[in-house]
Design goal:
The complex is a heterodimer. By secondary structure, chain A is mainly beta. Helix content of chain A is about 10%, strand content about 30%. Chain A contains 2 helices and 8 strands, in the order ββββαβββαβ. The longest helix of chain A is centred in the last third of the chain and has 13 residues, at about 135-145. Chain B is of the alpha/beta class. Chain B has 5 helices and 8 strands. A 6-stranded mixed beta sheet of chain B has the order 1-8-7-4-5-6. Classes of the chains: A mainly beta, B alpha/beta. At the A-B interface, strand 1 and strand 3 of A face strand 3 of B. Strand 3 of chain A pairs antiparallel with strand 3 (about 70-75) of chain B.
C-alpha cells in the first residue's frame, strides 16, 4: 500500500490498485493563491496512460468486481455554492448509485456523483462500480478509498 | 656527464609518476564499470535474459511522477496479465529504438501484457526530454526509487512481471524482436521442471538394503 499526494490531497492506494493525478500544479493567479484544479483517479484495475477527467478511457476496462473513485476539483468560486453545499467528504451508500449517473453508460455499470465543499475547496466525487447488481458489495471498497482521502 | 645522469633520473622519475597515474585512472575506470554492472558476475549477461529463480519483484507498485509532474502509481500485482517494465533513459543510444518501437504499439509477449516505461526521477532525467520521447498510450513513471529498488544494471533493461508480482524474466536486448525472443525463451525455461526429483522425495530416504 502506498499513499499518493498532490496539491494538498492524499489517498491510500491499496496493493493491486492504481492511482493517477491530473493538474494540481501550484500556480499563482493574482493574489487569491488559486491553483490548477486537481483530478485524482483511484482504480482497482490498471489505469490507461491517457486518462480523461471522468475516466471514459478507463471504464471500458472495468470488470464487474471493479471500482473506480474519481475526485475532481472545481474552482474556489464554486465552494459553498448550492451545488457544493454539502460540507465534508461524503460517505457512499448503495442507494446513491444508479445506472443513469454514468458519464459513459456501459452495460451493468453503476455510478454516483456527489458534490461537496471541504476546507474551502469544491469537489465532485464520482464513483463507478463495475456492477450495479453487486453495489452492496462494491460500495464498501469504494468507501475504503474515500475514507482514506485527506484534503488540506 | 653528471648533469646528463641527473636529467635522465628526473625523466625516469617523471615517467614513473605518469605510469602510476595511468594505472590509478585505469583502476578507477574498472571500478566504475564494475559498479555500473551492478550484479554479481555470472548472474546476468550484458545482453541476455536471466530466466529462472527470479522470485517476486522488489516492489508491488511503482509510484512516481509523469513528465508533466502528475503523480502516478502503477501496480505490478493487479492480477490481470503481465507487465513488461522498460527501464529507459533519454540519453542512452540503445534506448532510442525502444522509445520509437513502443510508440508503434508493438507485439507483446502475450496479448494481455501491458508495457510500462520507468525512467529515473526528475533529478536525473529531463522531464521535457522524456515528454518528447514518451509514447502515447504507454504508462510512464519517473522514479529513481524504483530504479534503485529494481537494481537496474544498465539501459535499456526490461523485466517481465506476472500478474501476482512474480518476475518471469529480465534482461536487455538491442531490438524489440530480440527482446521478444529472449522473453519467450525465458518463459519456456521457467515452465520446464528444473529437477525431476525434489529434496523431500521419499525415494531419497529409502534404505537401499531393504531393496
Amino acid at each position: 500500500m502506498s499513499r499518493l499526494r498532490r496539491a494538498g490531497v492524499s489517498v491510500e492506494v491499496p496493493v493491486g490498485w492504481e492511482a493517477a493525478t491530473m493538474g494540481g500544479a501550484a500556480q499563482q493567479f493574482g493574489t487569491d493563491g488559486s491553483r490548477e484544479q486537481l483530478t485524482l483517479h483511484v482504480a482497482s484495475f490498471p489505469l490507461p496512460a491517457d486518462m480523461a477527467t471522468f475516466g471514459a478511457s478507463a471504464v471500458v476496462n472495468m470488470r464487474s468486481d471493479d471500482v473506480m473513485v474519481i475526485l475532481v476539483e472545481y474552482g474556489p468560486e464554486s465552494a459553498n455554492t448550492p451545488l457544493f453545499a454539502h460540507q465534508g467528504i461524503p460517505r457512499l451508500e448503495p442507494g446513491m448509485f444508479s445506472r443513469d449517473n454514468l458519464h459513459l453508460t456501459l452495460p451493468g455499470q453503476s455510478g454516483t456523483q456527489q458534490f461537496f465543499t471541504h476546507r474551502g475547496r469544491a469537489f465532485c466525487l464520482y464513483v463507478v462500480l463495475g456492477s450495479h447488481i453487486d453495489r452492496a458489495d462494491l460500495v464498501p471498497r469504494a468507501n475504503a478509498i474515500v475514507e482514506s482521502l485527506d484534503i488540506s | 656527464m653528471t648533469a646528463l645522469i641527473i636529467l635522465e633520473g628526473v625523466v625516469i622519475l617523471l615517467l614513473l609518476v605518469l605510469v602510476a597515474g595511468l594505472l590509478k585512472s585505469h583502476a578507477e575506470i574498472l571500478r566504475e564499470l564494475h559498479r555500473l554492472g551492478g550484479r554479481p558476475e555470472g548472474e546476468i549477461g550484458p545482453r541476455g535474459v536471466r530466466v529462472t529463480g527470479l522470485g517476486q519483484a522488489p516492489l508491488t507498485e511503482i509510484t512516481g511522477s509523469d513528465p508533466s509532474g502528475n503523480e502516478r502509481t502503477v501496480s505490478l500485482t493487479h492480477g490481470r496479465g503481465e507487465t513488461l517494465i522498460a527501464f529507459l533513459s533519454t540519453g542512452c543510444a540503445a534506448c532510442q529504438v525502444f522509445w520509437q518501437t513502443l510508440s508503434e504499439k508493438p507485439e507483446m509477449p502475450t496479448p494481455s501484457t501491458r508495457p510500462v516505461i520507468i525512467t529515473k526521477g526528475s533529478e536525473a532525467e529531463s522531464p521535457g526530454q522524456v515528454r518528447k520521447l514518451a509514447p502515447a498510450g504507454v504508462p510512464l513513471v519517473m522514479s529513481s526509487d524504483a530504479w534503485d529498488a529494481f537494481k537496474v544494471p544498465l539501459t535499456p533493461f526490461f523485466m517481465l512481471v506476472g500478474g501476482e508480482g512474480q518476475v518471469l524474466g529480465e534482461g536487455s536486448a538491442m531490438s524489440w524482436d530480440q527482446l521478444l525472443g529472449l522473453l519467450e525463451r525465458s518463459r519456456a525455461d521457467a515452465e520446464e521442471p528444473v529437477a525431476a526429483i525434489s529434496p523431500d522425495d521419499p525415494t531419497l530416504y529409502e534404505n537401499p538394503i531393504q531393496r
